[in-house]
Design goal:
This protein has 410 residues and is mainly α. The protein contains 19 helices and 3 strands. Strand 2 and strand 3 form a beta hairpin. Helix 3 packs antiparallel against helix 4, helix 14 packs antiparallel against helix 15 and helix 15 runs antiparallel to helix 16.
């Protein structure tokens, strides 16, 4: 399958369930945060992804964002990364605009330091840091954020700065900076903090865990945020639901999957808007394995073009198939290879090779009778497994006692 559209899911943004805590005075008139900044990083990633078929609209969209936001450093880095020939006139125009704006922001800081209070100084410094961040000047933006943080007073504004720093870290895929900043934000939240910033941090942390393949941790954090999602500056609500469902499928037992995901009204309201996701979820839960496999093929292309899931797509593709095969085999002592292949919508030869690999890796408790073309489950019952575990642990204990007795005797 080939993708003809970017994996950015901007179909709906979930409104805040409760009004947010009033912002600091110096930020009161700031426009609401949007995901435009991180969307630029996703667009650049999609343009370098081989599964995206029609890249012309994406390139036009990215260049429009670059020109509107005057992102000279980001444009230069994008041309190098994607092998584009830079438009010299456009680059010169963007650099001139950047120089003019930086001079204005520097003058504003100087004026604030000479004649205004600490709040105005912090506001001027933050404006410069956010501008450097917006144009893609990573090192200078990080230094400016650190300088602003040192002068900031108040738990709420400090947490907002750390969330801004997290967006910078995620934009440049700096995992160490992301992890360190999350730890710093958690330390501040231990001292207090409102629910809105706490819940936003959960989504930031979940996205980080997705990027590091900690799907269980990500699923727990995402499920905690389903009813209170407000981090629209990071991802859209549809993307949030995509992450929640895909990570939960690998992490939750069937009972929890039903109560926390399938029956969740917040998820149901957008589930049908995300291609293949409803069939993926319901196909596994309702044991409609052919539907599941067809949906998995479609969803994997979307995940491959997602900058956080890209590196883990093959892992996800493999683990969900293992989960489906195990679930299917739990219902049978033995089943014909042809019958199982029909249930999954694949050929018997393909299934034979697939199962053989998973059996050899000890991912499936079954064996294949090549003469009669039958798959037999060899899953031990729970009581037998506990008995063998007790015997094994008893042997280890006896061995240790014998070694101890030799030492005592000596």
């Amino acid at each position: 399958a080939r993708l003809g559209a970017p994996p950015l899911l901007h179909l709906r943004s979930r409104p805040s369930a409760m009004p947010a805590e009033p912002a600091a005075a110096h930020a009161a008139e700031k426009p609401p945060l949007t995901s435009d900044y991180l969307d630029c990083a996703q667009l650049r990633f999609s343009l370098g992804c081989t599964t995206v078929a029609d890249k012309a609209p994406l390139k036009a969209q990215l260049l429009k964002q670059i020109e509107e936001k005057e992102m000279a450093p980001f444009y230069r880095a994008t041309c190098e990364a994607l092998g584009w020939e830079a438009d010299a006139a456009l680059l010169a125009k963007l650099e001139a605009a950047n120089a003019t704006e930086l001079a204005r922001l520097s003058d504003a800081i100087k004026t604030a330091e000479e004649s205004e209070g600490e709040s105005e100084i912090c506001s001027a410094m933050l404006a410069k840091a956010e501008f450097l961040m917006r144009i893609g000047e990573r090192a200078k933006a990080l230094a400016a954020l650190e300088e602003t943080y040192a002068k900031t007073v108040g738990l709420g504004p400090k947490l907002d700065l750390l969330l801004t720093k997290l967006r910078l870290a995620l934009f440049f895929d700096d995992k160490k900076l992301t992890a360190d900043t999350i730890d710093a934000a958690k330390g501040l939240l231990d001292q207090g903090g409102d629910w809105e910033r706490r819940n936003r941090l959960k989504v930031y942390e979940a996205v980080f865990h997705i990027s590091t393949r900690s799907f269980k941790k990500a699923a727990d954090l995402l499920l905690d945020s389903v009813a209170t999602f407000t981090a629209t500056e990071l991802i859209s609500y549809n993307t949030f639901v995509l992450y929640t469902v895909t990570t939960s499928l690998l992490s939750l037992p069937r009972a929890d999957l039903k109560s926390k995901v399938i029956d969740a009204p917040e998820i149901l309201q957008v589930l049908g808007e995300i291609p293949h996701l409803a069939n993926l979820l319901n196909g596994l839960y309702e044991c409609r394995y052919r539907t599941l496999m067809e949906a998995l093929v479609g969803i994997v292309d979307s995940l491959y073009a997602d900058r956080y899931m890209h590196a883990h797509t093959r892992f996800y593709w493999r683990e969900l198939r293992v989960l489906a095969y195990n679930q299917f085999l739990e219902s049978y002592r033995s089943v014909s290879l042809a019958g199982m292949a029909t249930s999954f919508g694949v050929s018997a030869d393909f299934l034979d090779k697939e199962l053989s690999g998973f059996i050899a890796a000890e991912r499936l408790s079954c064996k294949i009778d090549k003469v009669n073309l039958v798959v037999s489950s060899t899953r031990p019952d729970k009581q037998s497994a506990q008995f063998h575990s007790a015997i094994k642990q008893g042997d280890l204990l006896l061995n240790r006692l014998q070694k101890l007795s030799r030492v005592i005797n000596v």
